[in-house]
Task: structure prediction
Amino acid sequence: MRPLPRLFAFTDETVRTSRRTSASAGAIASLGAPVALVARDHAATGAELTEFTAALHVITRPAGAALIVSSRPDIAAALGAQGIQLRALDLSPADARMVFPVGWIGRSVHSVDEARIAADEGADYVVAGPVFETPTHPGMTPWGIALIQKASRLDLPVIAIGGMTPERSQQVFEAGAWGVAAISALWKTVKPAEAASRMLQPWM
Result:
């Protein structure tokens, strides 16, 4: 299996439906193997998410970037994605592996205990946060750098998420994070490739 990417570019409904997404996705994916585009839109129907994932796959494949699908191992398997990203109420990593036999299986976690459970259930990595305040989870108290420091002591890679910016990438890198994930900092900028490169810099 190829090395796990260091930068996860998560999407949401606004990204999926934006006319700028194709160009931005191409710019982010141009950085190649260190990057993963994560097809996520919990408001989308299965057909909509499948169409969106297929469009991202056309972009990631020639660039050498990875494609990860949120919550739907069936779609990931059908389209040849490299990974799936599970939430707490999704299938367990072990059950998802029955549908998606080859590729990474990640779990989103909000505490060290959840990270430990994910590892015990067979997750290949965790996305931990929110580290800082983020509009994606309004009202949720950020865990701070301590979450990354503690979760990184477990035997699996930790991707930091929540209010991440290029400036904060260095902080989570020093805390032991394998990589970083973002939405706004990558998709809501006029220079997505530059933003992605800056976020990756501590690991390069």
About this structure: The chain has ten helices and eight strands. The mean pLDDT is 95. The CA atoms of residues 32 and 65 lie 4 Å apart. The domain at 7-203 is CATH 3.20.20.70 (TIM Barrel).
